Amino acid sequence: MRRKLVVGNWKMHGSLEQNQALLTQMMADLNGLRDADCAICVPHPYLAQAQQLLKGSNIGWGGQNVSPFQSGAYTGAVSARMLADFGCTYAIIGHSERRVLIHESNVTAAASFGAALQAGLTPIFCVGETLEERQAGVTEAVVGSQLIAILNTLGLDILSKAVQLRAVIAYEPVWAIGTGKTATPDQAQAVHAFIRKRIAERDPDIARRVRILYGGSVKPSNAAQLFVMPDIDGGLIGRCSLVANEFRDICLAAAESACVASQSISD
Ligand SMILES: O=C[C@H](O)COP(=O)(O)O
């Protein structure tokens, strides 16, 4: 059975002082969490602080993007190796805010996915459609092309590395991000099942093992309904990862849904 994972994406929020208080509270709140994994992806300047505070706790940490390049004259860019230097486990790749606002392409996102794996990080590869795309009925075509970009750009060899480092996919419908409009559990499940089916066409074993997170206005009041869906393996959380008790409740919902699932298997 796939272990649930909840990842907070702080986006461009925080300060040394706020982070100290928030991470300290989260460590206290999540100290006893056993049945789910959790992590926080912080803005790059706060990686050292996250490493110092979270080391030895059961909260992992990561960055929110990596350069597709290993090093060189790329002003303002941060390499995957640099994230690894700060003990990161995770790197969010291809978030829609980067795709939409700074026109990051499928090819760039795929190359960053490869760079993250190369540095030993677990990439969290984001896919998702806009509202116009959903209304036009092309959700599967859009998500499918975002996924296939990985193979087209990096080739089939990337799959074994992705398995080894437990690469994660995050389905985030753009229309649900930061809007308060969550996809219904059935809408999200349908796209998650499509993603798993697409991966299964290449490799059924990877499809069974890969964790697919849902992101887009996840909150304590809807987390449990989403996490019990068979192909939803946790969440990528924006706004509610900036509020300790809301993030705690979402992590607890993930752990609880894992217990419900294991009970129903043994029943
Ligand atoms: O990476 C996280 C997503 O963009 C979701 O953000 P949100 O929970 O604020 O809607």
UniProtKB/TrEMBL annotation:
Keywords: Cytoplasm, Gluconeogenesis, Glycolysis, Isomerase. Pfam families: TIM. It is found in: Cytoplasm. It is an enzyme of class 5 (isomerase). Substrate binds at residues 9-11, 178, 217. One of its GO terms (biological process) is glycerol catabolic process. It catalyses: D-glyceraldehyde 3-phosphate = dihydroxyacetone phosphate. GO terms for cellular component: cytosol. Pathway: Carbohydrate biosynthesis; gluconeogenesis; Carbohydrate metabolism; erythritol degradation; Carbohydrate degradation; glycolysis; D-glyceraldehyde 3-phosphate from glycerone phosphate: step 1/1. The active site is at 95 (electrophile), 172 (proton acceptor). CDD domains: TIM. It comes from the Bacteria. Its EC number is 5.3.1.1. NCBIfam families: tim. Involved in the gluconeogenesis. Catalyzes stereospecifically the conversion of dihydroxyacetone phosphate (DHAP) to D-glyceraldehyde-3-phosphate (G3P). Homodimer. This is Triosephosphate isomerase. It comes from Pseudomethylobacillus aquaticus.
